[in-house]
Write a structure and sequence with these properties.
Length: 50
């Protein structure tokens, strides 16, 4: 079984991001990912802290 990596993990947070004009993907539609819905609003959107 693959190791779980949280979006708040430093390995993810410290990954540099650069604009490349590609479309964003709604991770809620990716079946291979399990997202925690507990902090989502009625529309399913979540906010990051800070």
């Amino acid at each position: 079984m693959a190791e779980m990596v949280l979006l708040s993990d430093t390995a993810v947070v410290e990954t540099p991001v650069a604009e490349c004009d590609e479309c964003l993907v709604d991770l809620r539609t990716v079946g291979a990912l399990r997202l925690d819905p507990r902090l989502a609003d009625a529309a399913g959107r979540t906010r990051t802290s800070g």
